[in-house]
Design brief:
The complex is a heterodimer.
Chain A (H helix, E strand, L loop, with lengths): L5 E8 L2 H6 L5 E7 L5 E7 L7 H23 L1 H4 L5 H25 L11 E7 L2 E7 L3 E5 L4 E3 L29 E6 L5 E5 L1 H7 E2 L2 E3 L4 E3 L3 E2 L1 H16 L4 H14 L2 H5 L4 E8 L2
Antiparallel strand pairs in A: 1-14, 2-3, 3-4, 4-5, 5-8, 6-7, 6-9, 9-14, 10-13, 11-12
Helix pairs in contact in A: 2-4
Chain B lengths: L15 E8 L7 H19 L1 H6 E8 L3 E9 L16 H21 L8 E6 L9 H13 L4 E6 L5 H7 L7 E2 L5 H17 L20
Parallel strand pairs in B: 1-2, 1-4, 4-5, 5-6
Antiparallel strand pairs in B: 2-3
Helix pairs in contact in B: 1-6
Classes of the chains: A alpha+beta, B alpha/beta.
Chain lengths: ~280, ~220
């Protein structure tokens, strides 16, 4: 019988610099399940010290869940048990992101806020036991485990320097239906676990800047670190076995993201991570 | 029972270069150079105490008087001892800043050649006087402003008691005019610098950034 139950932990916590400077957490995340083991997970990272980017990321998250839920209602992939093609998904994901942007523009107008003050990145993943539908703008990381190994499912967008990225509110991606700035992918593979994270978590969970001694160069493997994720999958399954509530699971996850490793403890940036595992 | 735990991968940190260009001319003798030396030690302590800065911030130091000397090549704080400075001589400010700009570009090229992601470097000029006669301030002004506009580095200048504000402002980008130091509060300035670097490196390109207040070390009226 096909397994369709997931255990998911998701949380956004303030980074050390934000705590010190009394800046609100500018990351947001959300999860929602559909039917037959399908669901959506969203991570949004508000832009730096902008006064309203915490509001922006929260609104982007809310709109993303709404827009992709409507898409699922229309396409019924969860009930049909099939994934769209890459081309179909790319077109639909682009339209969905446009819809989210329009929702944010409307919100900005209603609240009399400058759109750019709400700048945020976006990673949205529709998950299922038979594959993943991914779309994202900006940085952050995401990956999945197919029972044998962990793999990444997106390439973060960075410019020449480490602090350059693009946001949902950037105009550069408008018209980008070929996917230079908006990366959209269909992962047609068995999915035992998946993860999405903002860039505040990446150094603590992914291999992102390693040294190749042969080529004498640093490089970004963009690889989920198995020794980080696998113990936490076991932790999630233990919590499920003990029938812990979603609120309890997320509270424990929050503590872990805050200071559960040396990297997380000293990370100045806000941290968000969603981690889901299919129950055996 | 700890449900959540795991190893962290051994990632190298993205680098940020802070180029300090320091006036060690004769007018800095006595209290100014002593306080500057103490300030540099404060900077060292602040960076060491910050886990992230200690593994990502590379510091380079150029001094200038009658001579221009690179006394510290870019290095993480754990890899060198902060030098003690001695003051004498004149003020070859323009030559020093040009050397600093050249070294910043060299380091950036090395980052690119070795595949290392990096933040936009900072150049911080600290001076109390007028540059030597014949120094090409106009040319330097054009070079700095063009480089800042092209986002090749950020440029800040700290004016120490007795400095010529008009001359120093002429080489500074309009968005970052010279900052006048109150008394010899170098230690407070370097604490602010360490904090500001952390904040700037957490922001994204193009954002408006709110740096910590400068009232702890800056002279508000010129």
């Amino acid at each position: 019988m096909e397994r369709t139950q997931w255990v998911i932990a998701y949380a956004s916590v303030m980074g050390a610099l934000h705590v010190r400077e009394n800046i609100p957490c500018q990351d947001s995340c959300a999860c929602k399940s559909f039917s037959n083991g399908w669901g959506i997970a969203v991570v949004a990272d508000g832009a730096g010290s902008c006064t309203h980017s915490h509001i922006g990321s929260a609104k982007v998250t809310e709109l993303a869940v709404k827009v992709f839920s409507a898409l699922m209602g229309e396409k019924k992939w969860d009930r049909l048990g099939r994934l769209p093609s890459e081309d179909e998904w790319r077109g639909l994901a682009y339209s969905a992101v446009v819809g989210i942007r329009q929702g944010l523009e409307k919100f900005a107008k209603e609240k009399n806020l400058a759109l750019l003050s709400l700048s945020s990145t976006l990673i949205a993943v529709i998950y299922s036991p038979i594959g993943l539908l991914v779309t994202h703008i900006g940085d952050g990381r995401a990956g999945y485990f197919n029972g044998k190994e962990w793999q990444s499912i997106l390439q973060p967008f960075n410019g020449e320097t480490a602090s350059e990225t693009i946001f949902l509110t950037s105009d550069v991606w408008i018209g980008d239906e070929k996917g230079i700035y908006i990366e959209s992918r269909v992962i047609a593979d068995r999915v035992e676990a998946f993860t999405l994270l903002s860039d505040g978590c990446e150094k603590g969970a992914f291999e992102v800047n390693m040294y190749d001694e042969v080529r004498e160069r640093y490089y970004d493997p963009n690889k989920p670190f198995a020794n980080f994720f696998n113990p936490n999958l076991k932790g999630l399954l233990s919590l499920h076995k003990e029938k812990k509530s979603q609120a309890d699971i997320n509270k424990l996850w929050e503590s872990f993201l805050t200071a559960g490793t040396i990297r997380f403890k000293h990370e100045p940036d806000d941290k968000t991570m969603v981690l889901g595992v299919l129950v055996p | 029972m700890s449900y959540f735990h795991g190893e962290s991968p051994e990632n190298y940190e993205q680098k940020c270069l802070c180029m300090l260009i320091l006036d060690t001319s004769g007018s800095m003798q006595g209290e100014p150079i002593n306080k500057l030396n103490a300030g540099l030690m404060t900077f060292s302590d602040e960076v060491k105490a910050d886990f992230r800065a200690s593994i990502s911030l590379e510091i380079s130091i150029i001094t200038f008087n009658s001579y221009v000397e690179s006394i510290q090549e870019p290095a993480l704080i754990a890899n060198f001892d902060m030098p003690g400075l001695v003051a004498s001589g004149t003020t070859r400010l323009v030559d020093a800043v040009r050397l600093g700009m050249k070294k910043v570009e060299e380091r950036k090229q090395w980052y690119k050649d070795t595949g290392q992601p990096y933040y936009r470097p900072f150049i911080v000029l600290i001076t109390d006087g007028e540059p030597d006669r014949g120094q090409d301030m106009k040319g330097l002004s054009r070079e700095i402003r063009a480089a800042v506009d092209a986002k090749r580095f950020s440029f800040y200048a700290l004016g120490v008691r007795g400095y010529n504000h008009t001359k120093l402002a002429s080489i500074c980008p309009p968005n970052t005019p010279p900052m006048p130091l109150a008394g010899y509060k170098f230690a407070n300035f370097f604490k602010w610098l360490s904090n500001s670097i952390s904040i700037i490196n957490q922001s994204k390109e193009g954002e408006t950034i709110q740096l910590p207040p400068i009232s702890g070390w800056a002279q508000i009226e010129i």
